[in-house]
Amino acid sequence: MPSDFLNRALANAQRLHESGRLQEAEQAYRRIVAADSNAEANHLLGLLLHQTGRSAEGAPLIEHAIAIEPGNAIYRSNLGVVLKDVGRLEDAVASYEAALAIDPALAQVHSNLGVALLGLKRTDSSVAAQRRALELLPDYAEAHANLGLALMASGQPDEAIESYRRAVALRPGYANAHLYLAEALRETGRLDEAEASARTSLALRPEHAATHHALGAILAERGQLAEAAESYRTAVRLEPNGSAYRNLGNILNDLGRYRQAAAALESALGFDPDDAAAIVSLGLSQVRLGNGQHALELFRRAVELRPDDIDARIRLGGALVTAGRLDEGMAEHERVIALDPDNLVARGGRLFLHNYLGDRPIEETFAEAVDYGRRLESQVVARRDHANNRDPGRRLRIGLVSGDFRRHPVARFLEAVLAELDPREVELFGYFNSVDADENTPRFQAIIPNWRAVAMLDNDRLEQLIVDDGIDILLDLSGHSARNRLNVFARKPAPIAVTWLGYFATTGLTTIDYVLCNDIIIPPSEENQWVEKPWRLPETYLCFSAPKADVPLAEPPARRNGYVTFGSANNINKLSAATVETWASVMQAVPKSRLFLRSTPLAFEDMADATRNRFAALGIDPARLVLEGSVSNYAEYLAKYNEVDISLDPFPYAGGTTSVESLWMGVPVLTLKGDRYVAHMGENIATQVGLPEWIAATRSDYVAKAAAFSADLDSLATLRASLRQRLSASSLLDAPRFARNLEAAFRGMWRRWLATAPTSAER
User: Fold this and answer.
1) Is the pLDDT of residue 348 over 50?
2) What is residue 571's DSSP assignment?
3) Average pLDDT for residues 453-477, to the nearest whole number?
4) Local structure of 63: helix, strand or coil
5) Domain limits of the chain?
6) Which CATH number fits domain 3-218: 3.30.70.100, 2.60.40.1640, 1.25.40.10, 1.20.1250.20?
7) Residues in Cβ contact with 7 at an 8 Å cutoff, skipping those fewer than 6 apart
8) Mean pLDDT of all residues in the chain?
9) DSSP secondary structure, 73-108, as one string
10) C-beta neighbour count of 131 within 10 angstroms
11) Domain 558-733: what homologous superfamily?
């Protein structure tokens, strides 16, 4: 091709290229390279293909241009750009370095080299390359932004932020730099500034998916979950991908919108079926939707994909426990601890499980709790000074930390009492650590004047909130159960801390001062099972809120059935080996009797079969068992007691809520004397309603009493007719009396603290 004609053809192709007529430009370039081995035409065609998303086709063309003109630094630099785009980072680095060997003064090439080196995780070299670019061109905004990326990767966030700020100062319209700055500010906890930077970036580039995604992460950390969800929704609309769908699903889970969360997470798995994090989150959605079996399968899948994934194993362990598979659940907790010895979630879960299993001496469980407390307290700094007003008679600020101000057993022992507390004596603050509000939650909001939704606050922010609220006495209502905030209690945000109701053994924390109890639940001989000091109330240590559901009592079903029906609505996890053996002996001692068990896991056929098999192995015909999953309607739940003659209390983990509900419905509860808090709960309830004869001293006595009570249906009917009234007249349902005792306990704790806490002069 003659040189004049070639030059005109090339100039025409470039004009088409520059004017955006890319298809025509491509055809023009191709005609030139077909007719002549022109370096520039090959180079420009390669760049055009890169621009139109065909970098893999473009790279050989630029390589051909370099073969024609090996000394051209620009060709080698642009080849680096194309090679980086197709993921050939090592080759890109080599191409950039070859360009710089020809012309070391190319600032842009130094910066591009730094970006490729960062992709290879060679962060120190990346920083050095960006700094060299800036030596050559100090006002090069892109190099300042790229230096920020390299500094962030090398663990220097403050220096990165300065680089980003310099980039946006040089180019206020540089949207990417504003985005990078927002992400770095979020990493360093400067959320107000982060949000402002993200919104500036969006003002410059409203339809940028990654920036909406970044804003969603910032808003989530600020606790603005609904706004975060909208940002993630926008991100997936603009650029659907698995990561955005997964994060949207996570936020929707946090908001309690479990069906929407499940849909988003299913979409995430459509992009990557092996995304273990999305699988775990979908499992959480299914747990909340009541699809326990599906959740279990999902968690198993996540563990198969990532055997060393701590979160997946913890979730699997919890799902196994919920399904009644305690031994398997315990094994998962043990595996987590083997992978991560300092994992306090698994250690707390293991402590909770020991209450169910009852197969270890209490001394070992206590020692493990002490070890838990030591590990947690070594990770935080407990406050030594508290600026609370030291007036001994003033109104006390009482904080209640719980995720259970909702449909939950703890709530049934709180509602009536809190409503009766004298507002002249105490001012209540509720720290609700759950997003799962229900129809009961507004009642607690009405009772507790200072309501705080804290589920999305991290431990630092919750600690500061409690300090700012000036709490005098902070109550832990969870212990090692779900939704606890023991990490905050370890920091001692209030001068006095108390554990109560939600857990039935020591937390192990020295920063929790007292456990509320009475002489039955923690007799003096068992104080050595506690790190906390027992603070004994004069009567009962708990007070039940009478059911609002109007469910009438019925005659003993034995009279119409011709046989006695024993029953339990306790969690199936409480059926220890000793419990099952004893209940089987009861059924053998009472011919034709039936056992009616209600528990959520029994809705799963495999769990129901396993339960039948446990009794069959002890000689009990499975036909004598009536197994049901729990019902969500409370009135229907209570009415089921009309099908039971005598309730059997499990051990060592005795019933609490279920026992009081049984008595409310006229069904007496046979319980066994125990050797620890969790095993004394039935004794306390029986004592408060004046039924000491329903406390068995031994397992053989338990069987004998069950047989004797079953043999006297007239006495059983008389007792049944009187139980609701007896319960109503007892301290267990006398909320005003209990409230006065609780107020006196709070005042006593406060005055004791005033007498022992150092004054400011002593500090």
Assistant:
1) yes
2) -
3) 95
4) helix
5) 3-218, 396-536, 558-733
6) 1.25.40.10
7) none
8) 94
9) HHHHHHHHHHHHHTT-HHHHHHHHHHHHHH-TT-HH
10) 14
11) Glycogen Phosphorylase B; (3.40.50.2000)
